[in-house]
Amino acid sequence: MKLKSYVSGQWFESSNSGQILYNAVTGSPVAEISSNGIDFKDALEYARKVGNKNLRKYTFHDRSRMLKALAQFLMSNKEKYYNLSYATGATKMDSWIDIEGGIGTLYSYASKGRRELPNENFYIDGNLEHLSKNGTFQGRHICVPLEGAAIHINAFNFPIWGMLEKLAPSIVAGMPVIIKPASLTAYLTELMAQDIIASGILPEGAFQLICGSAGDLLSHVNCQDVVTFTGSAYTGKKLKQTPAILDNSVRFNMEADSLNFSMLGLEAKPGTAEFDLFAKEVVREMTVKAGQKCTAIRRVIVPEAYIEDLGISIKEKLAKIKLGNPQSEGVRMGPLAGREQVDEVKARMNEIAATSKKMMEWNDSKLSDADYESGAFFSPTLLLNENPLVNLESHNIEAFGPVTTMMPYKTIDEAIEIAKLGKGSLVGSVFSADNNFVREIVMGTATYHGRLVLINADSAGESTGHGSPMPQMTHGGPGRAGGGEELGGIRSVMHYMQRTALQGHPTTLTAVYKEWTKGATKQEHDKHPFRKYFEEIQIGDTLETHRRTVTDADIVNFAGISGDFFYAHTDVTSLEGTIFEKRVAHGYFVISAAAGLFVDPKKGPVLANYGLDELRFIKPVYTGDTIWVKLTCKNKEQKEDREGETPCGVVKWDVEVLNQNSEQVAQATILTLVARKG
User: Fold this and answer.
1) Which residue of 69, 145, 179, 195 is most buried, as measured by CB atoms within 10 A?
2) pLDDT at residue 364, as a whole number
3) 268 or 361: which carries more pLDDT confidence?
4) Rounded mean pLDDT of 627-651?
5) Which among 302, 266, 256 is positioned nearest to 282, based on CA atoms?
6) Which of 258-267, 359-368, 626-635 has the lowest mean pLDDT?
7) Bridge pairing between strands 123-130 and 138-145
8) Does the pLDDT of residue 636 top 80, yes or no?
9) pTM of the entire structure?
10) Which phi and psi (to 5°) does residue 51 adopt?
11) Active site residue 294
12) Could you give the CA distance from residue 584 to residue 581 in angstroms, rounded to a whole number?
């Protein structure tokens, strides 16, 4: 089978012979791969002119719904991905992480895009900045999609998750993607890519796939493009130095393999829950995906007194791991992704072992339904670096497979120093029930790590473990780990957008980003704003209410109803030395009374109060003060139609409560659900 690429809107099969890809278990050919003949410049132009243009027509919510539909479609086809995934050496659990973990990332971004981003094609970033004394010149930041393409160059170890975890934020942001999977396992990526195209869910030009070499693709990038890379630091640095990337200041996000640590707390002696959890996690990270994870534990940092016990525990657990054909019953660890990986891992392991003791020898133990001659098998190997502050090989060399090194520490300061010798890692983990110990480790190592996982007996039951990047949390790290960031929820969406500072008059800013800004023009109408349907309400619509004088009876009654008998409301004899001059109204009474002033009581288009944001009590309201309200429409957002529900939208109202001197006493944003005419 010759793998095809999908470029410039059509499937492409190279007429040239290419690299043969082999089944990691049996050694038999699986596919042939070549990108020879692709016009890479044309593919990039197609992404910019067709894909980008098409995606930018949609809002964040529209694009998020595309992801949800795509996730549902791919999940319905998951069994065929599992069947082919065995050829990569993955067990059922390994494949679950890759396949359903990847599809789960689509679901996560589909949800976050609709909940955390507006139903617009731009994003307002941060608060309004007052740049002048009288407020006629103000500033705000907006983010808009870049006008290029996102080129994603992925590693071989997660052929599906690696593609989808980058595709998701790119599509939400409004950027088309060009996926370049690592050749070794590209046949699995291509299988899913066929379904992505067949689904017809993404607009034309939003998705392209290159199977084989990327050719001169990176020579044609410009300042509107983004390049992301996952793989070895050596390859990443080489790509980062591409002249077009440097000349055009192209955004380049690198996530490189790193020497991640896991640390056992000083108090976590043998027999404690944390000790047992730690040993189990080390074994899991050595054997899941056969240790071929950029987040796998490479350095095991342990109190010196527990080294021997931990070594015994790990070896006992490893001895129970069944190695062989992933499709055979009971097999919990498969081969590496290819024969060349075996040679590479063995060479790197020997370099580390030059200054470390082998606690568990590499061996040709009996395999289940497989053999070493045909497959790419490598047994788990445990090393011991007895002097980790002197012998630095285990901090400088990574064997990208089931190889890890234990190293002892005596004090917290020494543990921190050892952890930082990795020179920047994707993840570190700490197993300890001593929260003070954990805090010291976090404060001492956070600058060198993109993620820290803190596990004890209380969190272990629901913990996703050391090596699992989650869509909501940042994945990346400084230094050796590449200096980039992926995932992290909406943070990664912003990586594909341009942040621009806008400065101007509030009325102009309001017109540009469709959110009323204080100082902007308002418009008052005879019709109460709560009598208007969603479509009729305009940003800047304003109501100035009648007035209400606050009485002692109001305060006493509210105290009785609410149960809030705070002294400032109920005991005037206790006010001496406080910030209050006399009996003060409850803040929540003030905002409730304000609602009574601006709400129209009759049944109408307003369906419900939807929430309250940014409430501030600015100035005390005393007995005898008279309050009134300025209610202004800040912005509005149409909600997705759902069967059985009234079509509606959310309207945000700026609520400014003032006293008889027109001094502001409270400020809030009120949200209402408002029916649409439709």
Assistant:
1) 179
2) 54
3) 268
4) 91
5) 302
6) 359-368
7) antiparallel
8) yes
9) 0.91
10) -65, -50
11) yes
12) 8
Contact residues for 457 (Cβ-Cβ < 8 A; gap 6+): 273, 274, 277, 433
Question: Amino acid identity, residue 390?
Answer: V
| Model confidence at 363: pLDDT above 60 | no
Taking Cα atoms as reference points, which of 20, 29, 31, 25 lies closest to residue 376? Answer: 25
CATH classification code of 506-675: 3.10.129.10
Instruction: State the pLDDT at residue 369.
Output: 86
Cβ 344 vs Cβ 397: under 8 Å: no
- Structure-derived torsion over alpha carbons of residues 81, 87, 91, 93, reported in degrees to the nearest 10: -20
**E strand map for 589-638:** 606-617, 626-638
Whether the CB-CB separation of 113 and 67 falls below 8 Å is answered with yes
SS3 138: strand
Residue 181 one-letter amino acid: P
pLDDT tens string 60-76: 999 999 999 999 999 99
CATH class of 260-481: alpha beta
Name every residue whose Cβ is closer than 8 Å to that of residue 678 and which is 6 or more positions away in sequence: 647
Q: Does domain 39-123+137-256+491-498 have CATH number 3.40.50.2300?
A: no
Q: Fill in the amino acid letter for 407.
A: M
Sorted by where each begins, the domain ranges of the chain are 39-123+137-256+491-498, 260-481, 506-675
Is residue 318 within 8 A of residue 283, CB to CB? The reply is: yes
Q: Same topology for domains 39-123+137-256+491-498 and 260-481, yes or no? A: no
Average pLDDT over residues 345-364: 82
Helical segments of 129-242, H only: 161-173, 186-199, 233-240
* Catalytic one of 143, 211, 294, 633: 294
Residue 446 CA to residue 439 CA, distance in Å, equals 10
524 flagged as catalytic: no
Q: What is the pLDDT of residues 305-331, one digit of tens each?
A: 999 999 999 999 998 899 999 999 989
Catalytic residue among 32, 255, 486, 515: 255
Comparing CA positions, the residue from 338, 405, 337, 342 lying closest to residue 379 is 342
556-578 mean pLDDT: 91
**CB of 123 within 8 A of CB of 497?**
yes
Q: Quick one: which of 419, 439, 431 has its CA closest to 479?
A: 419
